[in-house]
C-alpha cells in the first residue's frame, strides 16, 4: 500500500520534532511520591527550559510541535505565545498529566476539551493535535479516540508501540493509521523493527541513553519506508540542574536522570544534521487524506 507523503526538501522527507511541555515534577513516574496538591510548592523550570529549546530550534532552522499541558499554558501564557509566534505548532498534552487509562470517559473528555479551549484562547490558533500523558492511550481506554474527536481534535500521537512496564502497546501499528471507531488519525512514536522485534528509538529517555547516529540511522529507515520519523522530548530533559526527587523509587530516579547532562548537546547535533518540522506539516498527507493510512487490525498483522 502506498503511503501518503509529507513535505520534502531537497528530496529528504522531514521528520516531526515534538516536545511534551511539562515540568520535571509532572512526570508519571513520580505520581506516587508527589502529591498534585503540592505542585505549586516545587520550583518551576518549564518556562526557561522550553525557551532554551525554542532558541535551539531557531539556531538549527527547525520547527516543531509543542504538546503543552493546559495547566502550564494557564500559568505561563506568554510562553505559549512565544511558541506560536516562532511558527511552531501548538498542540495539547491534556490539562494536568493524568494517564488516560486512569480516567473514565467523561473525565477524560472534560480534561482534553478544557485543555484545547485554553490553549486556543491563549495561543490564538487552532489546536488539532493531542498527545496523552505517558503515551497512555492503549487497550485499557478504547473510548479515548471517540472522546478526542468529540472534543475537537483531528489527530493523536499517543501510542508508543513497544513493551514497557509503565506504558505502551506492543501490538499496536508502527505507522500512522486511522482508528476505526472515531476515524481519528493516530501517529505513533517512531520505533525500530529489527529481526521481528521492536526497539524504542523515538526519543525521551532512550535518546538520552543511546548514541545520536542510532536515531539517525532509524530515521533514514523510516524515510525509506515513506514515513516521517516522529521524535519526542521533554523540556526537563535538557536540564541537568533540576531538583532531584529523592523520595522516588531508585528505578524511577535513574530513568529520569540518566543522560541529562548530554541531552542538549545531542539534540543540537540531531537538529543540525537532520530536517525537522511540525507534526501537522510532516504528516499533512495523512491528515489531508482521510482514506489514507492502514486499517488498525491489518497493520497489527503486518508491522
Please characterize this protein's 3D structure:
There is one protein chain. The protein is of the alpha/beta class and 303 residues long. It has a single domain, classed as TIM Barrel (Alpha-Beta Barrel), CATH 3.20.20.370. Helices cover 37% and strands 14% of the residues. The chain contains twelve helices and twelve strands. It has helices spanning 46-60, 70-75, 77-85, 105-123, 144-150, 204-209, 212-224, 250-257, 260-273, 279-282, 284-288, 296-302; strands at 15-21, 65-68, 89-92, 129-130, 155-156, 177-179, 184-186, 191-194, 197-200, 230-233, 276-277, 294-295. The strands form three sheets. Strands 1, 2, 3, 10 and 11 form a five-stranded parallel beta sheet that branches. Strands 4-5-7-6-12 form a five-stranded mixed beta sheet. A two-stranded antiparallel ribbon has the order 8-9. Strand 8 (191-194) and strand 9 form a beta hairpin. Helix 4 (105-123) packs parallel to helix 5 (144-150). The protein starts with 14 loop residues before the first strand and ends with a helix. Mean pLDDT is 90; it is low at 291-303.
Amino acid at each position: 500500500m502506498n503511503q501518503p507523503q509529507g513535505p520534502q526538501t531537497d528530496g529528504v522527507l522531514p521528520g516531526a520534532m515534538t516536545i511534551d511541555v511539562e515540568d520535571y515534577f509532572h512526570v508519571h513516574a513520580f505520581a506516587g511520591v508527589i502529591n498534585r496538591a503540592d505542585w505549586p510548592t516545587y520550583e518551576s523550570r518549564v518556562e526557561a527550559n522550553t525557551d532554551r529549546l525554542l532558541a535551539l530550534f531557531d539556531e538549527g532552522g527547525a520547527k516543531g510541535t509543542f504538546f503543552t499541558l493546559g495547566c502550564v499554558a494557564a500559568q505561563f501564557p506568554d510562553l505559549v505565545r512565544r511558541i506560536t509566534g516562532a511558527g511552531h505548532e501548538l498542540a495539547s498534552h491534556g490539562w494536568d498529566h493524568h494517564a488516560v487509562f486512569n480516567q473514565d470517559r467523561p473525565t477524560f473528555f472534560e480534561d482534553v476539551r478544557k485543555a484545547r479551549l485554553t490553549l486556543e484562547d491563549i495561543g490564538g490558533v487552532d489546536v488539532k493535535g493531542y498527545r496523552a500523558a505517558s503515551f497512555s492511550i492503549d487497550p485499557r481506554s478504547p473510548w479515548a479516540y471517540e472522546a478526542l474527536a468529540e472534543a475537537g481534535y483531528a489527530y493523536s500521537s499517543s501510542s508508543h508501540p513497544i513493551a514497557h512496564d509503565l506504558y505502551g502497546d506492543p501490538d499496536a501499528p508502527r505507522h500512522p493509521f486511522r482508528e476505526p471507531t472515531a476515524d481519528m488519525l493516530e501517529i505513533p512514536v517512531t520505533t525500530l523493527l529489527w529481526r521481528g522485534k521492536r526497539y524504542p528509538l523515538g526519543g525521551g529517555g532512550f535518546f538520552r541513553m543511546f548514541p545520536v547516529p542510532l536515531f539517525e540511522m532509524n530515521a533514514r529507515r523510516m524515510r525509506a519506508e515513506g514515513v516521517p520519523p516522529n521524535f519526542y522530548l521533554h523540556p526537563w530533559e535538557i536540564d541537568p540542574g533540576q531538583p532531584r526527587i529523592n523520595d522516588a523509587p531508585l528505578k524511577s530516579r535513574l530513568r529520569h536522570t540518566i543522560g541529562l547532562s548530554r541531552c542538549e548537546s545531542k539534540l543540537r547535533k540531531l537538529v543540525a544534521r537532520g530536517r525537522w518540522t511540525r507534526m501537522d506539516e510532516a504528516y499533512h498527507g495523512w491528515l489531508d487524506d482521510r482514506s489514507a493510512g492502514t486499517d488498525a487490525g491489518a497493520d497489527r498483522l503486518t508491522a
